[in-house]
Amino acid sequence: MLEAEGHQVDVHYLNIELAVDLGVEAYESFSDLSSERVTLLGEWLFSRAAYRSDAGDAREYITDFPEVLETAKDFGISEEELVLFREENFPEWLDEISQRNWMEYDLIGFSSTFMQNVSALALARMIKERSPEIPIAFGGANFDGIMGVEFFRAHDFIDFAVIGEGEKVFPELVRRVSLGEKEIKMSGVLSRHNSITPSTQEVRAPSIVDLNLIPTPDYTDYFETLEKYGGDSLLRGRRVELLVEFSRGCWWGAKHHCTFCGLNALGMDYRAKSPERAFTEVETLLRNYKISAIAAVDNILDMKYLGKFCEDMAESDWTLSLFFEVKANLDRAQVKSLASAGVTAVQPGIESLSSNVLKIMRKGSDSIINIRLLKWALHFNISVYWNILSGFPGERDEDYRLQANLIPLLHHLEPPNGVNPIWVERFSPYFNGHSPHIKNIKPRRSYYHVYPENRVRNEDVAYFFDADASEVASPSALAELSEAVENWRSLWKEGKRPTMFARRGPGWLEILDRRRSPARRISMSGWQAHAYNICMDNFKSRSRLVKEVGQLAEAPSEEEINAHIDRCRDEGLLIEDQGRVFALALPYQY
C-alpha cells in the first residue's frame, strides 16, 4: 500500500538472520506457540537487551520454568549457554544490527505479533539511542487495545503506535512523516504529540471494510533475504509456506463468541475477499515465487469459498498445498471440495468430543459433528490439527469419562495433539467476566520474568492469564481421558495405524475392522446393509433412519430396525449422540 503511494519500502526479515545464527531447529523450537502460552521463552531471551539492568534474574526464570532447559538441551544448548544467549549474545547481536544504516529511512516501523515484541522493543530502543531523530512506529496484534496503549506509555522511544488495523491510518501517517510534519495527531494513532495522556486514551484505528482493496502480499524481500543467507542450504528440505489473509474477524464469533477465545480482539466483524480475488491472489503468489504451500492466517474459512474458489482451484491443476482454519460443521461434499482445491490440512476448532462441553464453549457443534469431520478429512487425505480442551465451568467428570470411553471407537481417525487446560485470553468472554466461576484473573507468571514491574504494567500488556475456575472436572477424570488420548496417539506413531473400512455392493455390505486386535469382519445384507449405508455419508436421526428403512418393499418392523441400530452401536460400528446415529466405517479405497 505504501509503494502504491510512491514510497520506497524495505522489509527486514531479521528472523532469518537469527535462525542462521541460532540454528534453524533451535529457532523453530524457541518460537513454538506452546512456549508463547506458557514460558514466553522467545520474549525472555531478549529481555536483557530490552530492559538492561531492570531485567529479571535469569536463574529465577529457569527455576520457575525448568522445561526450557529440556528444550535447549535437545539442540545441545546447556543452561550456561542459554543464559549467555540472554545476557550477552542476543544484546550484542541486536547492537550490531542497530549499527546498520538506518538513517537512510524517514520512518522505521515494527509489526509485532506473537513473540516478536521484546526483540522489536530492544532493537527500536538501540536504534533510537544512535539516531534519535528517526521516528519509530509500532503496530500489530501485540499492540491491540490497552496492550498497545501501555507499551506506548512504557517505552518513550516509540513515536507512534497504531492501535488496531493499519491499512487506513498507516499510509496517511507515512505521508505526513515524509512531508516533514512535526506534530502529527491522528485518530487511531498514538503519538508523542497527543495532548491526551496515552495511558488513559481510548483509541482504535478504523477497520478496512473491503479486503479486496488490500494488495497481494509482496514477498520479494523475504526471498532475497533467504537467498542471501543460504536459500536451499538453510531450508534443508523444508518447504516455504507463504502466509496469506483472505478474511478477518469470525463470522461465527460475531454471532456466538466462543467463551474462551480472545482472537480478533476488538475486530470480530467478519470481512472476506471475494472468491475470485482469493484465487487471483494464489495465482499471483505461485507465479511470482514458485512456491508449493500457502497457509491462510484467517480465523475461519468463508463458506462461499467452498463454491467458486474451490472449483477454480480444482480446475487449475496446480501443485499446491493449502491450509485453512475451518468450522467443524463440514459435511462430506464440503470436505471433498476442499481436498479438490488442494487443501491438505485444516484446523477445525474441534476442542472436544463432548456435546455438553461444546455447548458450554458456544462452539455451535457437537460430538457427532466433530467425528464426521474427522472421518471425511481422513477419507480425503486432509490432516486435522486439533486438541481436546478442559477447564470450562459447568463441565462434569462424566463429560471426560464418556470421551475416554468413546476414543477406542475412533482409533482409525486422526488423534488430537493432547488434552490441555484452557488459559484465559484477553478479549475473550471469560476475560470480560462472562462466567462468575472464573476468578482471580492475573497475567501468567512468565510475563513478570519478561517485563519489569517497575517499567511495564503486566496486567495491561499480557494476553494470556491464569485464573481460578470452579465447577470444573476433577484431575482423575482428566487423567483418564489423557491416558486414552496418549494411547490413541501411540497407535498412530507406531506406523501401523488402526483402520476401519466398509466394502459395499448391491444389497450387501462388509466391514473390515482393524481398530483393535484381532481384526474382525462384519457382513450385512438386505435392509440391514441399507440401514448402515444410510448413515455412512452423514448422521441421521434415529427416527428418520427407522422411517427410511421402513419404506423398503420388504420392510422389517420398527422393533427389528431399532434392534439392528442398537447392535451396531453396541458393537462400535456406529455412534449415537442426542438421538442421531452415524456410521464410523470409511468407504473402502483401493
TrEMBL record:
B12-binding domain: residues covered: 106-184
Keywords: Iron, Iron-sulfur, Metal-binding, S-adenosyl-L-methionine
SMART domains linked: Elp3
One family name in Pfam for this protein: Radical_SAM
Entry keyword annotation includes Iron-sulfur: yes
GO function terms (MF aspect): catalytic activity; cobalamin binding; iron-sulfur cluster binding; metal ion binding
PROSITE patterns reported for this sequence: B12_BINDING
Ligase keyword on record: no
Gene Ontology, cellular component aspect: cytosol
Cofactor names: [4Fe-4S] cluster
Domain of life: Bacteria
InterPro entries membership: BchE-like (IPR051198), Cobalamin-bd (IPR006158), Elp3/MiaA/NifB-like_rSAM (IPR006638), rSAM (IPR007197), rSAM_horseshoe (IPR023404), rSAM_ocin_1 (IPR023984), rSAM_sf (IPR058240)
PANTHER family: ANAEROBIC MAGNESIUM-PROTOPORPHYRIN IX MONOMETHYL ESTER CYCLASE-RELATED, BLL1977 PROTEIN
Protein name per the record: RiPP maturation radical SAM protein 1
